[in-house]
Design a protein that fits this description.
The protein is built from 13 helices and 20 strands. The chain is of the alpha/beta class and 473 residues long. The chain is elongated and about 80 Å long.
């Protein structure tokens, strides 16, 4: 192709809709391999190649030349209905867990010909039914999987609604590619809900709730854990930070009659990190669930859904979708660099809105999750030294913990399949209150220096998105 680097040849193909797309791709791959083409770029009906998109793929591979060619993908423009305008889908880097929840690659990708064509000629493997399934089959095996690389360029313009179309077909593609014992169903906005099987026997979870008085909050939280949570093997450790009110002390004595409950005492000034580390030292569970006392349980399977993710190989911390009492998003993962520190992605979005390409509705990777509801293997928590009680006593300790887990090669996961209410900061107050501001600014400076938060671009954010906004725009 004129103007492309000689190190990488690409061919662009026009495919027919749905039922014949994969057949057209198979023919194109066979022809491309016969004449020595490196890549095929699938072009769906109604889609357009932006200027220089092919050059972007070719230049990237020329710079990153390797023995095994990776799958490449880029950002895309999605046409708006009844308008000549388009919205940019500025995508995260490769996230295998996200790809099992949402096809964010096949509409704007370049497929390495030899690696892709093998899946149509293998006798012991069923041929893929769509490009999404093909990419899953190519990328999922941990030992033989093809790597997937992001090109930071808009490489496709797609038709209105393409990003959330064909939800049933996408669910079937995941069903075909996932392990047989995984549960797969269609999710909202063309997404997929995959539930990993629970191990047998299921692991014990130690749920840690730090509290000081505020009985109305504590009672709602505790009763939700003990009587509205279906997970069968839990212990509840209440870390009491010097409660003084008679009603609270009487309640703590009363709930100790439940054999699943223990109360440990921390009669010192408030230090969220130290309190939780102290309680974790008493935990008998294989997994720790850090839970704020201002959390309200909504559905019995919340902990089960978090455990399904936490037991997967290579997973660090798992966080839930948390809603404000008005049912808007309080937490759907944490993005590093927002506000030159870290921010809650998609905060304030209505619970049932699509928002930015349905990101609040899918299980996916994330840089960090909030300790208001966090599940983590005790061995991982201990390996990174728990929460930083010396320099991050109150703020950013949970994000710091998650980033330390990532430094150990673990992936943190956000799951909306566990949804709870968070009455945020009703217990300890806001960081920006005058009496807390000096401490908060000191901890902010520690966090920024430690993780370069004032400059870094989060892998699940994007350089073209606004760093000062928790709403992706």
């Amino acid at each position: 192709m004129n103007g492309l680097p000689a190190a990488c040849d690409l061919v662009c193909i026009l495919q027919e809709p749905c039922d014949s797309r994969i057949a057209g791709l198979e023919l194109a791959l066979a022809a491309a391999e016969e004449i020595g083409i490196d890549y095929v770029v699938p072009l769906a009906v109604g889609a357009m190649l932006p200027r220089h998109s092919l050059a972007g793929y070719a230049a990237f591979n020329s710079e990153q030349r390797r023995e095994r060619l990776p799958i490449l993908f880029g950002d895309q423009l999605e046409d708006l209905t009844h308008s000549n305008a388009a919205i940019g889908w500025f995508k995260p880097l490769w996230d295998q867990r996200m790809m099992l929840s949402q096809d964010y690659i096949s509409s704007a990708c370049a497929l390495p010909v030899s690696a892709a064509h093998r899946f149509f000629v293998k006798e012991d493997v069923q041929a893929p039914t769509c490009i999404y399934e093909l990419i899953l089959l190519m990328s999922l095996p941990p030992d033989t999987g093809v790597s997937v690389e992001k090109v930071q360029r808009i490489t496709m313009r797609t038709a209105t609604g393409d990003w959330c179309a064909d939800g049933d077909a996408r669910s079937q593609a995941v069903q075909n590619a996932a392990p047989e014992n995984a549960l797969v169903s269609a999710g909202p906005f063309g997404t997929v809900q995959l539930r990993w099987p629970l191990p047998q026997p299921i692991p014990k979870v130690s749920i840690i709730v730090a509290t000081r008085d505020k009985l109305e909050l504590l009672q709602t939280c505790v009763e939700g854990v003990l009587f509205q949570t279906a997970y069968p093997d839990i212990e509840l450790i209440i870390a009491d930070n010097d409660s003084r009110e008679t009603e609270t002390l009487e309640y703590l004595d009363e709930i100790l009659k439940d054999p699943r409950v223990r109360v440990v005492r921390w009669p010192y000034p408030f230090n969220y990190s130290a309190i939780n580390n102290f309680a974790a030292g008493h935990a008998l569970g294989e997994y720790l669930c850090l839970l704020n006392n201002d959390i309200e349980v909504l559905e019995p399977q919340w902990l089960e859904e978090m455990v399904r993710e936490a037991v997967q190989p290579g997973v660090g911390a798992v966080g839930a979708r948390l809603l404000y009492p008005d049912r808007t998003i309080q937490h759907a993962g944490v993005a590093l660099g927002i506000g030159n520190a870290a921010g809650h992605a998609h905060r304030g979005l209505q619970e049932d809105e699509a928002g930015y390409f349905a990101q609040t509705h899918i299980v996916r990777g994330t840089s960090a999750v909030t300790a208001a509801c966090m599940l983590v293997a005790k061995r991982h928590f201990d390996a990174v030294g728990g929460l930083d009680e010396d320099e991050l006593a109150v703020a950013y300790n949970d994000v710091d913990l998650c980033l330390k887990l990532r430094m150990r090669g673990l992936v943190n996961i956000y799951t909306p399949l566990a949804t709870l209410i968070h009455h945020e900061s009703k217990s300890r107050g806001l960081d920006f209150a005058p009496e807390h501001l000096e401490r908060y600014m000191r901890e902010l400076a520690v966090f920024q220096q430690r993780w370069g938060a004032a400059e870094v671009v989060d892998p699940w954010h994007h350089p073209r998105l606004n760093r000062q906004s928790e709403v992706f725009n």
